[in-house]
Each structure stands twice: as C-alpha cells, then as structure tokens.
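If it is no trouble, can you show me the amino acids of a protein and the tokens describing how it folds?
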Amino acid sequence: MHRRIFIQTLLGSSGLVLLNCGSPQKEYSLEDITDCDDLSGLDEEELEKRKSLGYEEETPVSDNRCDNCQLYLPPTEKRKCGGCQLFKGPVKPGAYCTYWAPRVENA
C-alpha cells in the first residue's frame, strides 16, 4: 500500500509522462504476407527462434515435412503462406524443423 502511494507521488510530482516516441509496431500476421520468401517483417528474435528450432526450407528427411506436421498451419483463403505454431513467419510445405511431429488425422 505504502509503495503504491510513494510511486504515485513520485510520478505525479515529477511531471513524468511516459510516451511511446516511436510509431506503434503492427502485430506480425501471416495474412499480411504476399511473398512467402519474405522474412523482412520478422525481428531478430523471431529469426533466431526459427534458427534455434532447426528450420530448414528443404527437409533432409523425406517423410518429415512441414505439411505433414501436427504444428503446421496450412495456407487458407486469407493466408497465402503456411505457418507454424512454434514461430512467426512463412513456412514452406516441404520444409522441416527439429520439432516435427506427425499429423494426427481425426478419425
């Protein structure tokens, strides 16, 4: 209780106003992508995440492809490119990562 009053008093008396000086960043969305090879909308953290998960644009294991992985998000009418539940950005159907999990079809 005392800490909250102290902080309110401190911020109020200093006239401090917190502003976002940069333009607000738009949330990354696969629906905005028109070129499935374009990774320019991804920040360094997301690019590193793809790399750390072992994402490769061509699978080294013929039976393990993104398009038969449980985590793959296939293209839709609104989304030209496929995606993945583990990281942001476009994913090629014939790609692969170390977290590949076989797709389970609903019976």
Notes: The first helix runs from residue 2 to 14. Helices lie at 2-14, 44-52.
